[in-house]
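Dear colleague,

Thank you for sharing your sequence with our group. We've completed the structure prediction you requested, and as agreed, I am returning the results in plain text so they can be pasted directly into your records. Please verify that the sequence below matches your submission; if there's any discrepancy, let me know and we will rerun it promptly.
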Amino acid sequence: MRTVVEVARAGHRVRCVLRAGHLAPRVLTQTDRAVTVALVATGALLLGGDHVRVEVRVGDGVALELVETSGTVAYHGRGLPSSWSADVHVGRGASLVWDALPFVVSDGADVARTTNLRVHDEGAALLRETLVLGRDGQRGGLLRSATSAVVGGADLLVEELDLTGPHTAAGVLGAARVVDSVLLAGARPPRADERADGRHHGWDGAGPDERRGVVVLDLHGPGALARAVGAAAHVADVGPLVGRWRTALRADAAAPEGTGAPTAPTADAPPGTTGIDDRSTPCMSPTT
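Please find the predicted structure tokens below.
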């Protein structure tokens, strides 16, 4: 089942197409060019045989933030595989922040996770992915995670993580169970604060973040990838770096026409056009 979030400028407001699948989109706040949308699970996820697809389209000049209300647990599939995929497009002068919550792969799960990101050469996106093998006391099931990011028509990142084999081997994950990553596409991260001697650490994260176990990679194009690997989520945590990068991203994406104060969704949203809550309206929280 597809979950669709499409936002675009329409005069002096933002219009949305919101469609609920395994996840239901709900508008939290909005201005004349920025929208925050929550993704709310409509049931237990992921069960064996579940195939979740999220499609996100951010129109030119719009700033979208996606908020997850809970993490995702891939349960024992009872012999059935499951999948989770995201297809994301970010337009010219647009931005997306998706600070996703942990994705847990339980014993017996067999999951394929795919993220495809396409960003205009004048757009930017910040996506976080936290993969956790196993619930408490578990080793975790099978996971294949693939990420593809393209900026301005050129490949920025093509990566695949296959944890269907002996992932505890040295050089793979070893004793680690958590892989926490954040991808910045379409912009360079801000510089770190100057040190006492007036010199820079380089791009944000090259100094203190590496000492904290976060490795920051400057990509060949406009972007960067930060990653931490550890035995638990509080050990492998790129959260502080995500906070700094998203602040810079929001500052760069300030509205040229004036943003105005965030407003709560209005309550008089028109009824949905289908039984799966599919609509194109000014960004208002849909009713079911």
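Summary note from our side: The CA atoms of residues 157 and 170 lie 24 Å apart.

Kind regards,
the structure core
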